[in-house]
Amino acid sequence: MNERGSEGNLDQIRIAGREISRRGFLAGISIAMGALGTILIGVPMVGFLLNPLLKRVPDEWRPVGNVDDFSVGETTSVVLEDASPLPWAGVTARTAAWLRRDSQDKFTAFSVNCTHLGCPVRWLDDAHLFMCPCHGGVYYQDGSVAAGPPPKSLIEYPVRIQDGRVEIRTSPLPIT
Amino acid sequence: MLNKGMRSAKRAWDWIEERTGIWAAIKPLAEHPVPPGTNWWYVFGSATLFTFIVQAVTGATLASVYTTSSGNAYESLRFITEDAYMGNVLRGIHFWGASAMVLFVGIHMMRVFLTGAYKFPREFNWLTGGFLLLLTIAMGFTGQLLRWDQNAIWTVVVGAEQAGRAPLIGNILGRFLLAGETIGGATLSRFFSYHVFMIPALLIGLIGAHLYLVIRNGVSEPVKRDQVVEPKTYRSRYQAILQREGERFWPDVAWRDVAFGFLVVVGIVILAIIVGPPALTNPPDPSIVQAEPRPDWYLLWYFAVLALIPPGLEPYVIIGAPLLFGLALLLLPFIAGKGQRHPLQRPWAMATALLAVMMIGILWYMATKAPWSPDFNAKPLNPQQVGAESGPLWQGSQLFAVKGCQYCHTIDGQGGQRGPDLTAVGDRLTDQQITIRILNGATNMPAYGGNISSGEVDLLVQFLSSRHGQ
Questions:
Q1: Mean pLDDT score of chain A
Q2: Out of B157, B444, B447, closest to residue A118 by CB
Q3: pTM of the model
Q4: Nearest partner of B142 among B94, B109, B93, judged by Cα
């Protein structure tokens, strides 16, 4: 417990056996209260802001069409919904993928994001190439880099066939 | 009668002044002495401040309609642009105001740098100004994103990918920009909070500090040759100038700030009415892959940097260059904080400024042309240009278009500029050389070997080798 110092000296107090001035004590406790108050408000704020970095959204399998909708050898863009979209996300909850039916029961799906800086690559059907509109990255049909600045192949999404439907598993935006 | 009215107005004012001391607080600021000879080069700081105020008030007004949800923002922007009374003009003012603010912050900084006004005792004027520059660019970037269309979402993606290049924390930084794992409901509201609350709060605090320092250290005196800044003597010399021939700030000097600021406001409104804000592109639907994202003009030059650096250097340049720039900005007043102020006696400063302006100018010009981007809108050649309406030449020209060659190669002024112009390729290369190039590709050209039949190669080669100069 704090107790007053020697009789008559109001400016000296004693804490844990140490003598400090009354002014020093008031300054110290005011700063401590300010810091504590900041922490009390700050922790929920910082947590609220940083949580999206730490929370891993579980991936979901999303149907993108019936197997019969796709002909063998064709590459088309399909739309899948994000794993757990917020109710107000609207169209931003959609993600595109390039889906190719390789054979009767084999599909390949590529992320549309160029591995250079993430711009959406286009499939050139006659040339059998993916081409990026931003800085001219080009990929072969297997996703490997054909030309330009991309450092690595297009990212592939997992695909499966379930009850006659093609399903793609959602993934985070590939940050390369 | 009139006199009596004025007397009672004066009494009322005295009554207020006695209780508030408003004028007692403002007078020393308004009338603070300014060194003689300040000129029109001194207006860009206040012009930046005026444009900031324009941005704050128009921004607050736009926010009264703008909807901060990833799903609805685009519709609210359409409403502001097309239906709301004067909405298009207001958006235009906010866009051109932003452009003016970036421009003036740049000119102001250049003026301060070239005339050595950042030197003793104004080092902290420079440092606060440096942070204000960075925050202004951050406002430009986040503001472009609030124009929540297709261009905006891909700008977020490109931003996140760039942040992703940072060592160790890149991934987390990228996620932080996206506010999650993908573009989605959380992304826009977060950028809204940055753009409207967090960055402006920092801006206003720093503007206050910057202005306080301007008053405390005084407006820098116009440069004279051979007059050096010496920390020991500078203040007394400066005070002597002020006492001898200082001018009153308001209105003797301030009128120039107001006049220029007025012209700026007029210019912004005229541009807003005549040119208007940037048109909205497609809705912010990440599944529409027909997108060609480009940053607004003030960051367009950086788009060129990203295209032109060799891929191997990217991680260093994308993260290293801004860090180096920031570091140079911070260290400048401590490295060169005294001595000569006149630009003609500071060749290194002149060279640095010239180089910076030239570099940004050239990069900017390059970015408006963007010769590195494939041109997806290239028109196929017409029979007259091909020199045939049917047969192998014509078929070859069709292949040239559909195989994507023309997105990167120009013939007769039609096509992209990523690869060499092939208008007269028949003069330069033999059939065999053309064939090898098509099949094997090059660093910036895909090898078509696996994507083309030998019959198609023959047709293409026939067509290309028939291309001759006049």
A1: 89
A2: B157
A3: 0.91
A4: B94
